[in-house]
């Protein structure tokens, strides 16, 4: 028996596009309004829900609220217009599994829905085996005993199982990479690569090749073809430390990789599909950088679907001794 997917959108062309993308793998039922869909969703017949955010009557956000209250655990994927990424990011915190921005990309749709259904079915299997679902996570690699860090640990338990990009903000030395690795190790990607890279440590003229790879002869010194870090992290997590240092000239290419899940080596005429979760970290104020036109707003929203603010060490002095011992 195939998994059933509910799709809700008040535009017929969008419904047909989504049906086309998913009907080969799932039994798809479409609805032009959220109220009608909710009646069927409450029966418990679906493995995932894909819904537009902006609709007349009940909106996608209101539908999400009802699903979270009545069927917790059912993955809801929201579709948003390009200019509404802030609303989509807020919906993740409200319980959405993920979001997809328009114009719709069929590969992205299939990937996000596949991950959502896999996770939902895994949860059902555990319930059928009468096993208590542990909402805690293994935080043995993260160092901290303060009340502020305990709150962070609880947050990680909700973040890790999702496929959403994460932005970790905090001063140098607060343990951002340890938190990133903990998210990865407690996610469905745990058995795939965790690839860390410090943007600031790579010369600007080499950064594009390091991230995306290059063909033989693409530039002076390129004696052979080489995969980049996106390819190395395929299926897993790419940790972009000090993301605030990425040059403006390279930000459009990074944005495309996040939006389309496609990369292009330097010197290549073809693209490659990659499945990578991005966790970025910074000790800079990216919101201020956006206002100063030093960082693209659309890239900022793509990176910061979920934001974690690590408290500075001066506010959690009890964590300093174990951190000093670790490093």
Q: Explain this structure to me?
A:
With 327 residues, the chain is an alpha/beta fold. The protein folds into two domains: 4-128, 3-Layer(aba) Sandwich (Rossmann fold); 147-326, Rossmann fold, CATH 3.40.50.300. 39% of the residues lie in helices and 16% in strands. The chain is built from 13 helices and twelve strands. The protein has helices at residues 12-22, 34-41, 60-70, 85-94, 106-128, 147-159, 176-185, 204-212, 229-232, 251-260, 286-291, 297-303, 320-326, and strands spanning 4-8, 27-31, 48-52, 76-80, 98-101, 166-169, 194-198, 237-241, 262-263, 272-273, 277-282, 306-309. The strands form three sheets. A five-stranded parallel beta sheet has the order 2-1-3-4-5, sandwiched between helices. Helix 3 (60-70) links the parallel strand 3 (48-52) and strand 4. Helix 2 (34-41) packs parallel to helix 3 (60-70). The longest helix has 23 residues, at 106-128. The chain is globular and about 55 Å long. It starts with a strand and ends with a helix.
């Amino acid at each position: 028996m195939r998994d059933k997917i509910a799709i809700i959108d008040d535009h017929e062309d969008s419904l047909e596009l989504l049906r086309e993308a998913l009907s080969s793998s799932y039994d798809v039922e479409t609805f032009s309004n959220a109220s009608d869909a909710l009646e069927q969703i409450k029966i418990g017949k679906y493995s995932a829900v894909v819904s537009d955010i902006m609709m007349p009557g009940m909106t996608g956000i209101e539908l999400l609220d009802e699903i979270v209250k009545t069927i917790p655990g059912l993955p809801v994927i929201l579709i948003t217009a390009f200019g509404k990424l802030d609303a989509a990011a807020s919906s993740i915190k409200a319980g959405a599994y993920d979001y997809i921005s328009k114009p719709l990309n069929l590969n992205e749709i299939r990937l996000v829905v596949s991950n959502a259904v896999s996770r939902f079915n895994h949860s059902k299997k555990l319930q059928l085996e009468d096993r208590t679902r542990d909402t805690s996570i293994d935080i043995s690699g993260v160092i901290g005993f303060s009340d502020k860090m305990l709150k962070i640990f609880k947050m990680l338990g909700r973040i890790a199982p999702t496929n959403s990009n994460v932005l970790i903000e905090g001063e140098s030395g607060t343990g951002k990479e340890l938190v990133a690795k903990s998210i990865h190790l407690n996610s469905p990607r745990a058995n795939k690569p965790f690839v860390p890279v410090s943007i600031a440590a790579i010369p600007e003229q080499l950064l594009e090749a390091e991230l995306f790879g290059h063909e033989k002869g693409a530039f002076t010194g390129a004696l052979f073809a080489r995969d980049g870090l996106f390819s190395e992290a395929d299926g897993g997590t790419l940790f972009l430390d000090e993301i605030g240092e990425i040059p403006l000239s390279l930000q459009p290419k990074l944005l495309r990789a996040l939006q389309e899940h496609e990369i292009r080596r330097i010197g290549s005429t073809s693209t490659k599909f990659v499945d990578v979760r991005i966790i970025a970290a910074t000790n800079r104020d990216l919101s201020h950088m956006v206002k100063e036109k030093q960082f693209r707003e659309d890239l900022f929203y793509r990176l910061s679907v979920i934001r974690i603010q690590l408290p500075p060490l001066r506010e959690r002095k009890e964590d300093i001794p174990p951190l000093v011992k670790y490093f």
